[in-house]
Amino acid sequence: MLLQCCMDRLARPAVLVVMVIVVMVCICSLTFSSVLQLVNWNGEYHQGPPHVSRESGYIQLTLAGNFKPSEYLTGLQQDKGSLYSNEEGHDITELSLNPDIDARGQWQMEQVDAYCQKYHLEKVAYTLPESRHIQQNLYRHLIFDDSRKLLFCFVPKVGCTSMRRFLFALQGIIPEESIHWETVDEHKYLAPGIQRASFLNKSLTDEERLYKIKNYYKFMIVRNPLERLLSAFKDKIEKPLNLTEFDMPSQIFDRFKEEILMQYRKDEFSRWFASDRHVPVQVTFSEYIRWVVDTEHDNLNEHFAPTISNSHPCRIKYNFYGNFKMYNSDIAGVARRLRVPFEYFYNKSSHSPSTETRNLLDSYYSQVDKKLKQRLLQSFSDELDFYYHLYPEERTTI
To answer: What's the CA gap between 345 and 47, in Å, rounded?
Structure first.
């Protein structure tokens, strides 16, 4: 009896241990199943579970074995087989391309917070730059509307002329009918608007600027950086230099062409400059990219400088980042939020983003040698990383 009693006493803890082990195995199994569900984007796994690690504020999924991405991810750069998902396991395009601009904006703010933490820039939030040069560059790009408590940051080559025109017309700074004009005189209409309705307005105090940054609805439109660089080249640099246009002092972009040619084709350009200059001379796309890479970002014209140099997203904390490829629908969403008729806010006849530049990416970047491409990607690494935090499905290879 004594032996049986001792055995019963010893058996009870053993049973408890076994039960605990069984429960833990069940929990681990359920957790592992959840992870597999999280990453199951129509893929197949044959060589073990995915490795899940947190980086930059969202979950990075590095998949072991064969993985078949969904058709919508065609063109997404698969660096080491990694894809991105949020913690709830939603398809990333449900978030980055959400037509609800408030919901997308909230997700974007979280993504930008992660970006700013990654580069140790979180402490600059809601502050003004100390450098006067940086101040002036940022201030001229921030357009405000006090009556609607709106702050818009314009970026060249991202539909900025149309947006400035609409915002100035809304405030009565320029004629309302100007929104329907095919072109608008920059110096006559837009330049005065910048002085009156941008942060360059001399009557604004720093306290008023900070109030607007903290309390107004802030938005901007972004574009794939590689596409934007190509668009700037085609619009401002590609057209050949000739005698008539070169002699016009207002053609600032001809001065950039001269600078590029003098830097990379000095002898040829010197001979051309010394001649009658009736034969046009043209900058190549490869020379242009080399010039962009060799020039400090702070010294680049706003058309060629990175978006983050003009907009300071870690400082301003924008509520929404529209996408140039969805310009119509995103601006319509902003118009609804402002209670402004879309027909007034945006005129289809004056601005219709085409797919031409996107379709030419391969053609133009194939002219650039591998080493220069690598230098470009390194030079614009922060800019590309920022854009891919907002629109990760648009990762592009060149």
So the answer is: 54
User: 């040829």: which residue's tokens?
Assistant: 268
**Average pLDDT of the chain, as a whole number:** 77
Structure confidence at residue 277 (pLDDT): 72
The reported pLDDT for the residue numbered 184 is 65
Backbone angles phi, psi at 14, to 5 degrees: -65, -40
Both tokens assigned to 385: 């990383």
Q: Is the dihedral of CA 235, 239, 245, 247 positive or negative?
A: positive
Model confidence band, residue 19 (pLDDT cutoffs 50, 70, 90): low
- Segment 238-243 shows an average pLDDT of 83
Q: In what order do the strands lie in the sheet with 320-323?
A: 142-145, 150-153, 217-222, 320-323
What 3-state class would DSSP assign to 150?
strand
Q: What is the mean pLDDT of residues 386-390?
A: 97
DSSP 394: G
Interatomic CA distance for residues 357 and 230, integer angstroms: 7
Considering 22-26, 76-80, 88-92, 378-382, the range whose residues carry the highest mean pLDDT is: 378-382
Helices (H), the chain: 2-39, 92-96, 101-118, 132-139, 160-170, 191-197, 206-215, 225-232, 243-246, 252-264, 266-274, 285-294, 307-311, 313-316, 327-338, 342-345, 356-359, 361-365, 370-379, 381-390
Dist. CA 306–CA 225, nearest whole Å: 7
Contact 369, 286 (CB under 8 A): yes
Of 230, 157, 226, nearest to 377 (Cα)?
Answer: 226
- What is the identity of the amino acid at 144? F
Average pLDDT for 315-323: 97
Length of the chain: 398
pTM of the predicted model over 0.85: no
Neighbours of 260 (CB within 10 A): 21
DSSP string, 55-123: ETTEEEEE--S-----GGGTT---GGGEEEE-TT---HHHHHT-S-HHHHHHHHHHHHHHHHHHTT-GG
Query: b/e per residue, 13-38, with b = 16+ CB within 10 A?
Result: eeeeeeeeeeeeeeeeeeeeeebeeb
- C-alpha 233/C-alpha 289 separation (Å) is 9
Please give the pLDDT value at position 143. 96
Position 280, amino acid = P
